[in-house]
Amino acid sequence: MLTNKKNVDLNAVAHYCQEYQRVEKKLIGQRQKKLNRLRLDALEQFSAHGFPSKKHADWKYTSLTALCQTPYSLSMSTSDNDMVTTLLGPLNGDYRLVFVNGFFAAHLSTIPMLTDNSIISNLCTMLNQYPEQLNATWKPKETVAENCFTYLNTAFMQDGVYIYLAANTRLCSPIEILFINTDEISQRFIPLRNIIIAEENSQATIIEKYIDMTRENNANYFTNTVTECHLAANSHIEHYKAITESKQAQHVGNLCVTQQQQSQFSAYSLALSGALIRSDVTVKLLASDAHCQLKGLYYAVGQQQVDHTTQIDHASPHTRSEEFYKGIIDDRARAAFNGKVIVREQAIKSKAQQLNKNLLLSPFAEVNSKPQLEIFADDIQCTHGASVGQLDKDALFYLRTRGLSISAATELLVKAFIQDIIEQMPLFNAVAPPRLIKKTYESI
Questions:
Q1: Is the pTM for the entire model greater than 0.90?
Q2: I want to staple 314 with a disulfide (CB 3.0 to 4.6 A). Which of 171, 202, 228, 347 is the partner?
């Protein structure tokens, strides 16, 4: 007999299958047989596998109950919102793409013309107007990790960013991508697909921001993102992701990266607001001298849940990876870090470093940290570590004796805890929302 939990999961799977039948004829790219086949294959895989339970090792500490119990629906259009225009901040560079409630807003975006066949556009435009270019460069089955949420995203993907950097293209200013949600999105399912292709010797900085503009920051919606990056030889991509969703929002994101010889990929993550934030990162170092670094800062408060799962696959000799995540967990919030580094048999002379540190500010806060190394080669250098602790009582007492209040002393120690990870994010001030960072300290 099925348990209630199993019934909830099966009902959720059935709901999304029914949603697909409802919107199938309205999805973008309906005239493209290859895309339709890709969607149907993904839906079939999603239906067969369903949502993961806590029996899955990578989902042991992630509860999907609230996500599965809510019947999120896909909207096919969005209305203009004057508030978005008034609240947009100054442009940090020459390029900005704005999406409102999952759809591209051309009138809010700034995309100068590029030379040398490079393209910055949105996925819907590419599918409708330039399918040949998209099909020639987009190889999702070679890049995207296979799991239920990437299957779900592939079946329903509506819009997102398409960035193609031709060989020898080097962009001096960052590409800013704003995904903004407004009041009209209650119980909406928002599947976003971002494609980044960097050809040989190309270079760019890309900033993804997920911003909530709903009243009282309280809308319940489900953002499902897949960002896939392919780095050719000698290319260099810096990727930032800042998540400031609604207090009731569910955010599940997958970042999937493949790297070729002497490429460099840097990913900087800020997970700050959302009922559930689940970030999965998969990096494949496929050729010698490929180098990646993953840096992350997360803050969980109230009943919030913030989870990170990473996998770096050293599949070639002389590859390098560095991974450093820090978390602050308060109230009754929960966090999890599950980091895996795989060094294949042929990946000799490879180097990998992995570190996760967590600060608990409440006796009810919870964090689970699981760094892992799977090594199948000799002559390599790999380290990993994790720590979970509370504020130093002696340090607090010392600061109190110098005249600081308990809140001021706590704020100072929290700032000291995260200072080193902030210093390793070159564009932290441009990416982090100041009011939320300030709120972190004020709430202690």
A1: yes
A2: 347
